Amino acid sequence: MKKALIASVALAALSPLSAAAAERTLTISVYAFAQDDFKALVYEPFEAQCGCKLVVETGNSVERLAKMEANKTSPVVDLAAVSMADALAAARAGLIDKVDTAKLSNFAKLYDIAKDPNGDGMSVGYTFYATSIAYRSDKMKVDSWADLLKPEYVGHVAFPNVTTNQGPPALYMLGLALGKDTPDLKGPIEALGEKKDDIVTFYEKSSQLVHLMQQEEIWAAPIGRFSWAGFTKLDVPVAWATPKEGQTGGMNVLVLTKGSKNQDLALQFMDFWLSTETQTKLAEKLIDSPANSEVKLSEAAANNLTYGEQTAKSLKLIPSAIALDNRAGWLKTWNDKVGQ
């Protein structure tokens, strides 16, 4: 009896420790954007499904990649959400592993553009966005990216600074329109430089554009689709351009840390994030445009996001290798021709 009691007490004392030891933990590195919504729509539902714990680290891309590099020999992060170009940089630095897409039940549902964005098997796209021109439809007509530099329009244009996410893609499309589409973006930067005194501003934050358009200080600006909602609330007519050269944009991807001991759990989480249900919830909250082709959205959500197969096929994204290999050159040319 006494021995049984002692054994019972010992077992009771060890049980919490055993449970704690058995609990699986997945550490993810993500953008700080909309974390309350991500917690409610992605993190907590996944924890409930897997019986595991998610540790979420946030920060900008530079900080998060630096941490992955610093912990290369003993990884802390298991999965990260980064841009296409940052994924390629991480691959070149030996920080990430190939993604075993055979373990992703939702992989086949993705738009082709998101299945292997860098062509190396090291990342999977979870959201993308279009970049085009928001413009005052009562003041101008936009058929081409080159229309931004027309004499009658250029004095009412805001253009993204080359240091912003929208800068290089917009320059890339302007270069296509001008017939000067070399990877160094020299042609479009020089063209902007010639008109720099006419352009209203080389913006760094898209939030300032809605006010400028409301005040009629600008008629047009290249923007990412994620910024479009603010323009739709203006009491002046604003349209989204579909230039003959097409639209550009960007994509965010999921990657697996090389050497992680939790890759199977990380793949489960990746698959959960890519599911039709999760992608639909994020899209309806206007958080992310869906990479899952089976997502069906309300008209209100669809109008504010980058949505649909035709849109996905039409996007002309800057290849990551070109972005990585030319960033320094872009900045130098910009500073020489446009100024800081």
TrEMBL record:
What are the coiled-coil residue ranges? none
Q: Which InterPro entries match?
A: SBP
User: Could you name the domain of life of the organism this protein comes from?
Assistant: Bacteria
This protein's name: Polyamine ABC transporter substrate-binding protein
The yes or no answer to whether the keyword Signal is present is yes
Q: Can the keyword Ribonucleoprotein be found in this entry's annotation?
A: no
Write the record's keywords in alphabetical order, separated by commas.
Periplasm, Signal
Question: Which lineage do the record's taxonomy fields give for this organism?
Answer: Bacteria, Pseudomonadati, Pseudomonadota, Alphaproteobacteria, Hyphomicrobiales
What does UniProt give as the signal peptide span?
Answer: 1-21
Give the organism the record lists.
Rhizobium croatiense
